[in-house]
Amino acid sequence: MNFSINDSDKQALLDSLQTANLKFQKTYPGDRPDRQPVHTIYGGANLFKSDTTDKIGEIALKNLLTYAPNFVVLAKVLKLDGFEHLPDSLSEIEDLIARLDAMTEAQRRKEHAWLSYSVYNKIIAKLKREAVEDFRIDFEDGFGNRPDDEEDATAVNAANELAEGMANKTISPFIGIRIKPFTEDLKLRGVRTLDIFLTTLLEKTKGKLPDNFVVMLPKVTIPEQVITLIRLFEIIEKKHNLAPHTLKMETMVEATQIVMDEEGRNPLMRIVRAGEGRLIAAHFGTYDYTASCGITAKYQTMAHSVCDFAHHVTKVALGGTGIWISDGATNVMPIGPHRGDNLTFDQLNENREAVHRGWRIAYGHTMHSLINGMYQGWDLNPAQVPMRYAATYNFFLSSIEDATNRLRIFVERAAISTLTGDIFDDAATGQGLLNFFLKAMNCGAISEEEALETGLTLEEIRSRSFYQILKGRRNKK
């Protein structure tokens, strides 16, 4: 066989290309397989208690059972797939539930009611087990501007409550604080709260932070704000003998200037680099962003087209970096207008209609986020939490059959594909397919056993790495 390119020229060119390829892969390693929470609940720091997340779960479950006492009600409110085949009378609904309860999972999957029945029961199980995945103790919009002595005292109290929650194991698996922004007028207050809170917490816990603790820096517009926070982290870590890079941060996409700077460029990667590996997530601020676009309050919703623009620009800018992206919050609370124990029939109906209307809005917003590849969002009220899981479980369960077949076929084909060095062809695509199942398992949509239908073993699934799965399979050949 004859060639025109000699080996030395070819090797020199490929060595040069390797340097560029590896640099690219370092910047864009692909989606992180780590667990990402499906939501973050923001709550005013003045209200935070060690058992706040437990209380949220209790309220959320009561709200669901009050306004959807069975899966048929929820399915019809949200128009879940197959809802039109469900009965109307209570006796028929009770008979259907008893029949479904007695079936095996394989039998239920053949029924029109399988999806809505599964979604409803998984929501209840989740609310009882782990209603809140991520909580942010909020010193910004959820707390407001207060006298310094009041915010100082709140920072101390919130830190002590968090320490108590750590000891009692009553906090969410992901947790953090949101401080005030590092704008010129609020930077001193933001730094002061950060210092007081972390110093109090670390002294109380003898230098231990909660798992998955993060500091949210809002209203970021320039890299220097992030750089300042990182330098402050270094001081705190040194003071309390924490390992370098222990403290992590998030930023918020809530100003037009973080989507496009004065030179017409998207600055998000510069913001990420300023974080020096500590910036792990970017959260969208629906209402600040729409306000910065000149949208009046009446039309400031997640459904506005300016939000979709910001979402897509953010995803394009951060795609493949491993930075988690979170959507914002729905501002319509599913809460009835009437309170009290002795409500009239009409008042009870008005409450139910208001809650169901709020549910549909929250469900629709979350489904829109999921369809557009945003697997996390904000919740502002316990009554919103059931709809977060309703949309999330519906999204995963309604796609599970197709995703299972795709992953099974992809793994089989990729296991015999080219391996060059430590890099498999299409590894990123495979990791993306695997991540669908990891996300579904993380939030409770499916179990590990159900994921075995992909043809993967439990050991392979728990590796969370498509590369490791294929490497293991190739080594067995």
Characterization of the model:
The chain is an alpha/beta fold. It has helices spanning about 5-25, 50-65, 70-80, 90-100, 105-110, 115-130, 150-170, 185-205, 225-240, 270-275, 285-290, 305-320, 345-370, 385-415, 425-445, 450, 460-465, 465-475, and strands at about 40-45, 135-140, 175-180, 215, 250-255, 280-285, 325, 375-380, 420, 425. Helix 7 runs parallel beside helix 8 (about 185-205) and helix 14 (about 385-415) packs antiparallel against helix 15 (about 425-445). The model has no long low-confidence stretch (mean pLDDT about 95).
Return the structural class: alpha/beta
Strand content: 5-15%
Count of individual beta strands:
10
N-to-C CA distance: 30 Å
- Physical arrangement of strands within the biggest beta sheet: 7-6-5-4-3-2-1-8
The tally of helices reads 18
Overall, the morphology is globular
Q: What are the low-pLDDT stretches, counting only 5+ consecutive residues below 50? A: none
Mean pLDDT: 93
| Helix content, binned percent | 40-55%
Quick one: biggest sheet?
8 strands, parallel
Order of helices and strands: HEHHHHHEHEHEHEHEHHEHEHEEHHHH
- By oligomeric state, this entry counts as single chain
Radius of gyration: 25 Å
